[in-house]
Known about the structure:
Elements: H1 2-8, H2 19-34, E1 44-49, H3 57-70, E2 74-76, E3 79-81, E4 84-89, H4 101-115
Parallel strand pairs: 1-4
Antiparallel strand pairs: 2-3
Amino acid sequence: YYNEIRDQEPLFHMSGASFGWLHEAMRLNHFLQTKAWKQIQTPILLFQAEQDAFVSEKEQQRFAAKLNRKNKPVLIGTGTVPFVQCVRMPNTRHEIFNSDTDILESYWDKIIHFLSF
């Protein structure tokens, strides 16, 4: 459904990243890794696509571990979860929200569950 809407509306078409976008993304990543991570105070639900060609799972895990060392686990009901929860989504690529319906149902269920606490 999402892809059909995007295909029909020229304003929603996507193309490859420009060198300018890549440069700014690298600057933001550097800032986030060196300074801004210390200011993050909101628990994070981090989705990881199993077949992501653009984002390093190893670096995501390293970043999550750094935040989890700094922040206490989050109390949910009678138990706790890590400050950063990593959810690896099997059979997915970079943009998980473009997946098939069965994957999207699980994806959105996890988001709604996370936001309900």
